């Protein structure tokens, strides 16, 4: 059925984009190699991850709260809590169909968040058990991947690693994140994730602080992209914000071209719409202009990026 709804996804694994940037992902899907989580010592990682909850530093906010007793900025406790989990047909063509688990809570407070009801807890969320999560993943082994997203998956990293211990299927894992993980979390993810699906929003800490309420964005997100690039395959999403070409879009695309070249896929996304509190900020209160989108896409092309839109 998904083939009818997303015909562009049918042969996407044979595309040049995938051959250049995601050759290992492709091999997992044609059963030539195993997903990384099936080959790593997860038990050790799970123990380390749960220990972090005693003084939480899973993301760079480093709230240092004991999440067995209280909650930090993300408002996630010591159990996995999700909004929904379903076969997602709206992701990049090579990822569709994607079994996507939407976790509650986020480490950011983006003023234009499209998933604000999940990220900022306007929904209640549903607590599931570790084994239920594993069972759900196994039941969707015919999808091209399991996609951990939110909100943001970082606060729920111990539960994700724990549940992967019980998954039997050879299914690629996707870490779909704002990339504000701490170094400890980056180490826990190492050798587990098959595709890092990143969200690189800003090049400018002032923009990040004003629009996502987060400090030291650039240093952290740049560091984590460099680490992820060394560890695994990557798709970088960049959402074109109106009026942020010079401060954000241009330097981000330049950095990707200089440092990762065609070995990553860049999705230069034109679907920004002013959601949630965006109307308060004059720069992002409207849709981007057609010329702004075309300028960003032209730059991606001129830089020789392995890009899609
Ligand atoms: S994951 Fe949540 S509690 Fe932990 S440091 Fe980040 S925001 Fe704070």
- State the distance separating the first and last CA atoms: 24 Å
User: What does the overall shape look like?
Assistant: globular
Q: Architecture, CATH level 2?
A: Alpha-Beta Barrel
CATH topology: TIM Barrel
Provide a count of the helices: 13
Structural class: alpha/beta
| Structural domain count | 1
CATH class label:
Alpha Beta
Q: Based on DSSP secondary structure assignment, what is the total number of beta strands?
A: 9
Specify the biggest β-sheet. 9 strands, mixed
Bound ligands, named by name, code or SMILES: iron/sulfur cluster
Estimated share of beta-strand residues: 5-15%
Give the C-alpha Rg. Answer: 18 Å
Order of helices and strands: HHHHHEEHEHEHEHEHHEHEHE
Uncertain segments are none
Give the helix level as a range of percent: 25-40%
Strands side by side in the biggest sheet: 3-1-2-4-5-6-7-8-9
The whole-number mean of residue pLDDT values reads: 97
């Amino acid at each position: 059925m998904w083939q009818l709804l997303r015909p562009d996804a049918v042969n996407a694994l044979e595309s040049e984009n995938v051959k250049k940037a995601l050759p290992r992902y492709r091999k997992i899907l044609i059963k030539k190699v195993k997903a990384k989580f099936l080959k790593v010592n997860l038990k050790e990682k799970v123990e380390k991850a749960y220990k972090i909850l005693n003084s939480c530093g899973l993301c760079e906010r480093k709230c240092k709260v004991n999440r067995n007793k209280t909650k930090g900025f993300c408002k996630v406790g010591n159990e996995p809590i999700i909004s929904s989990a379903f076969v997602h047909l709206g992701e990049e063509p090579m990822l569709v169909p994607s079994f996507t688990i939407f976790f509650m809570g986020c480490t950011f407070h983006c003023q234009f968040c499209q998933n604000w009801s999940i990220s900022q807890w306007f929904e209640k969320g549903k607590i599931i058990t570790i084994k239920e999560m594993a069972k759900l993943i196994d039941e969707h082994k015919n999808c091209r991947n399991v996609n951990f997203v939110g909100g943001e998956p970082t606060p729920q990293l111990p539960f994700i690693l724990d549940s992967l211990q019980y998954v039997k299927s050879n299914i690629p894992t996707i870490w779909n994140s704002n990339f504000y993980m701490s170094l400890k979390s980056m180490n826990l993810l190492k050798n587990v994730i098959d595709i890092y699906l990143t969200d690189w929003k800003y090049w400018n800490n002032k923009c990040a602080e004003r629009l996502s309420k987060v400090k030291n964005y650039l240093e952290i997100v740049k560091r984590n992209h460099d680490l992820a690039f060394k560890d695994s395959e990557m798709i970088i999403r960049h959402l074109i914000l109106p009026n942020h070409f010079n401060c954000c879009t241009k330097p981000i695309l330049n950095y990707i071209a200089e440092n990762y070249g065609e070995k990553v896929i860049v999705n230069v996304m034109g679907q920004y719409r002013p959601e949630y509190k965006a109307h308060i900020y004059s720069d992002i209160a409207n849709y981007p202009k057609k010329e702004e989108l075309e300028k960003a896409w032209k730059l991606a092309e001129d830089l020789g990026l392995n890009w899609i839109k």
